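Hi Prof. W.,

I finally got the Mitochondrial inner membrane protease ATP23 prediction working! I wasn't sure whether to trim anything, so I left the full sequence exactly as given:
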Amino acid sequence: NGNIDKSELTVDEKQQKWGYDLYPERRGEKYKPSWTRVFFGMEGRETSDKIKCEKNVYSCVKNSPLVKLMMGALKSSGCSIDIRRHISCEVCDHSVSGGYDPVLNQVVVCQNIARNEGIVQGVLTHEMIHMFDYCRNDLDFKNIDHLACTEIRAANLTHCSFMSAWAQGDASPFNVREAHQDCVKTKALHSVLAVRKVSKQEAIDAVERVFPKCYADLEPIGRRIRRNSTDMHKAYMEGPYYGYDVD
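And this is what came out:
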């Protein structure tokens, strides 16, 4: 019988199926740097990377309008964040810069990839959208449609400026609106494929099924954030109008 009985999967296989192989420390493994990458200065500085990552996280929590808005929205939804408990800097696979672990309800910031405050801000905001969806919307990450929806929302709200779409090959000056939607679909597709062992067509189908509804859902940021704009600050200032407890 060529079919796999999911109930017979080992713990390690189940973890890999849900993306835990991208986050080795989530599986209780101690990270072992490659000697060749250490030789070329690409690895071997895990302790200093962790300290720098935690400083960047703290700075974002104190200063980033988007991160502060997300934390306020989570608090107002009954899911307050304790940064010592709910945010973890770890070494990850090089294909990801962060993640959300719904089992432990933790945001993972990949200290070996997210090396500056700007990237950390993007990771925190993106993953806190997943945390918000899990808190507010009874999100089931094992349901591929749910996963596609939260990835669409995160890409829509935080990633796909015109320049991002251009970089992905999804934009031209003549189709800005369509470019944004294509960028969101591309980003969501890549995210689904990164954490779920499904075929590309299965992932595409899931993204397309839920796209209209999830693309239209701008909560809790309330607007799509454009690069080099005041959108972050506007969203933060508007937070109290939606009942979010922002400082």
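The chain has two domains: 18-32+41-136, 139-232. Does that look reasonable to you?

Thanks,
D.
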